[in-house]
Amino acid sequence: MELNSKSGAVISRSAIVLIGGYIALQMMSDIAATKVIVIGPLVMDAGFIYSLTFTWRDLIHKRLGIQAARTSILLAGVTNVVMALYFQLVVWLEPETSWADAGGQTAWAFVFGLVPRIVVASIIAEVLSELTDTEVYRVWMERRTRALPQWTRVLASNAISIPLDSLLFVTIAFAGVLSTDALAAMFLTNILVKGFFSLLSMWLIYVVPHKEQETA
């Protein structure tokens, strides 16, 4: 990207904000997911901010192009792997005695000593569902006229990627541990919550301008 031109500088700033925001949302949701919460009759993890990443990915796709979207997804996946490994290393490191006696080590290990299966499930679900979101968005743009409202492309891509993400995560993380009924309830809860926040965030697609030339 050229930084010595007005348009190049604008695109560079957009890239920093969009890609940085996307990775930040991914990291925050993975950390928040270590807490289980209750919302009315629903029991779920607190990482519901993850729902926004599907629409945010669409913003990257629209403004920076499909290659930037794919790169952002893979970069976020690698970042989350490194984050999980680093947190595990910190759990293993010898704690200072008075801090440990005050409950610090127990609390840290409980929150950040993530179960490997859940970490793997989260990362696989995130990467595959977001890559699928990218392809659905691309196909929608190629086969549909731009005269259609922009929110339709967000709705179409999220309608496929959100159920896929929920199915992959629940199955990989909890199959063989929870009953079929519990798996089904968790799957539906994930779709409902993620779908709700996705609908609330669809308007964000109008915040960024189109990339001048989009290529696959």
**Level of helix content?**
over 70%
Named CATH architecture: Orthogonal Bundle
Number of helices: 8
CA-based gyration radius = 19 Å
- Biggest β-sheet: count, sense, barrel? 2 strands, antiparallel
Report what the structure shows.
The chain is 72% helix and 4% strand. The two termini are 18 Å apart. The protein has one domain (6-206): Arp2/3 complex 21 kDa subunit ARPC3, CATH 1.10.1760. The chain is built from eight helices and two strands. The longest helix is centred in the middle third of the chain and has 28 residues, at 116-143. The chain has 216 residues and is mainly alpha-helical.
Quick structural gist:
The protein is mainly alpha-helical and 216 residues long. Helices cover 72% and strands 4% of the residues. The protein has a single domain (6-206), classed as Arp2/3 complex 21 kDa subunit ARPC3, CATH 1.10.1760.
Give the topology, please.
Layout: H1 6-32, E1 36-39, E2 42-45, H2 52-64, H3 66-92, H4 97-101, H5 104-112, H6 116-143, H7 151-174, H8 180-201
Antiparallel strand pairs: 1-2
Helix pairs in contact: 1-2, 1-3, 2-3, 2-6, 3-5, 3-6, 6-7, 7-8
Notable traits:
mainly alpha; 216 residues; 4% strand; Arp2/3 complex 21 kDa subunit ARPC3; globular
